[in-house]
Specification:
Elements lengths: L2 E3 L11 H12 L7 H8 L6 E3 L12 H11 L2 E9 L6 H17 L4 E4 L7 E8 L4 E5 L9 E2 L10 E10 L4 H16 L9 E3 L1 H13 L4 H28 L7 H20 L14 H26 L3
Helix pairs in contact: 2-7, 5-9, 6-9, 7-8, 8-9
Length: 320
């Protein structure tokens, strides 16, 4: 019976759990010179802003994991592969599960942690950093714990959102920085102006604010999801501001103006204020959200100024 455990793999320390998992794997592999905002910015992940019609927590993960993650990692010079299947009572699921178990163990044997959806009861991306054939378990890391309960082989892919998703980081290459800067901003502009998302119940970019304000006005919104989304997107909005500041200093081909910097600073500042006013406290939060008119005005302001910022990026910086 084989057993292997990769020590010194850190738990996820970002609100964006997928990129947090990527960061943990990179750090373990010795690539610890990229900041959180660089990873979120260059990959384009910081620009993903999705809100559901009831502002549920699911908006953060409603996108095409396979395609989006592959292309986002490619932008930062990471070659990856993945397995993705929805476990809707598949007749051959055990075969798929066994194939994935073998793949995961193969990467662990090659000293590479594996990124996975919901290795614990927390519906976030996590990491597998070891296995034990005798007990038939994987050892995992998630967003909350350094040492959560092991994941039984037979439970791989089973959760309240039963996707069997595994991402394998295969190799790293040196990238053309200017190309990466430009393509990441172009991705951000496209996603901001997106007319339709993959589900009719969710909107992305500019239209996400419409869902947010509608759900507050109607009073039919998920309080847990609202506060969770605020915290996740607060990290993203701050990353955009930091990334644009970084590009202003580092890029030789992009002219990032003080005007656009100031716009995204205001966006980030308002989100930071909202997170302080409506902190995410988990499922045991019974706080009633009041001052809805004032809250809607803040989101109206955010929608307007952020749209102005993306117009500048589109017309003046990228000249799209």
């Amino acid at each position: 019976m084989n057993k292997k455990y990769l020590k010194n793999v850190e738990k996820i320390n970002m609100w964006n759990s997928f990129m947090g998992a990527v960061k943990s794997v990179l750090k373990y592999k010795g690539f610890d010179d990229i900041s959180n905002f660089e990873l979120l910015g260059i990959s384009g992940r910081a620009f993903d802003f999705v809100i559901g019609t009831k502002c549920d927590a699911g908006g953060v993960t409603v996108y095409d994991w396979g395609s989006e993650h592959f292309h986002q990692l490619d932008r930062v010079g990471i070659y990856s592969d993945f397995k993705l299947n929805f476990n809707n009572d598949l007749n051959t699921y055990r075969y798929l599960q066994n194939d994935c178990i073998s793949l995961i163990k193969n990467y662990i044997d090659k000293d590479t942690p594996v990124i996975i959806w919901a290795p614990t009861d927390i519906l976030e991306f996590g990491i597998i950093n070891g296995y034990d054939d005798e007990d038939e378990v994987f050892f995992a890391k998630d967003v909350a714990n350094d040492d959560p309960d092991p994941l039984l082989y037979k439970n791989l892919g089973f959760s309240l959102v039963p996707y069997l998703y595994i991402c394998f980081i295969k190799d790293f290459i040196k990238i053309d920085n200017e190309k990466a800067y430009r393509t990441s901003l172009a991705y951000g502009v496209r996603e901001w102006n997106k007319k339709f998302h993959i589900s009719k119940y969710y909107s992305k970019g500019l239209k996400a604010y419409d869902n947010l304000m509608f759900s507050i006005k109607e009073g039919d919104f998920d309080r847990f999801g609202f506060k969770y989304c605020l915290s996740v997107y607060n990290e993203s909005k701050r990353a955009i501001y930091d990334y644009l500041n970084y590009l202003r200093e580092k890029s030789s081909s992009l002219n990032i103006s003080s005007e656009v910097i100031e716009i995204f600073l205001e966006v980030s500042s308002i989100f930071s204020e909202l997170v302080l006013e409506y902190p995410f406290l988990g499922h045991n939060d019974y706080y009633i959200i009041e001052n809805k008119d004032s809250l809607i005005k803040k989101f109206e302001r955010l929608k307007y100024i952020e749209n102005e910022g993306f117009k500048i990026l589109k017309d003046d910086v990228l000249k799209m």
